[in-house]
Specification:
single chain; 80 residues; mainly alpha; 434 Repressor (Amino-terminal Domain)
């Protein structure tokens, strides 16, 4: 079987989209950045930059998972 390069469309702004959705779902949950930071064992500055920098600050899949649990939001929602 011969392998060939397939064509996919990868969004350049995915980190920005995740950042915006974290803020959206955090706000809907009525949780402050400070409380989110406490719940996921990160600094307040980290959560603030994660939302404020609009994708210039990323996070690990482990952190994204913790955020999804705290916000009671399916992890795939952050990618929409």
């Amino acid at each position: 079987m011969t392998a060939f390069k397939r064509d996919f469309e990868f969004k350049d702004d995915i980190r920005k989209r995740i950042s915006e959705n974290i803020k959206k779902y955090r706000t809907l949950a009525g949780i402050t950045q400070e409380q989110l930071a406490l719940d996921i064992d990160k600094s307040y500055d980290f959560t603030r930059r994660l939302e404020f920098k609009k994708g210039k600050v990323g996070c690990s899949i482990d952190t994204l998972y913790k955020i999804s649990v705290v916000l009671n939001t399916r992890i795939d929602k952050f990618f929409e």
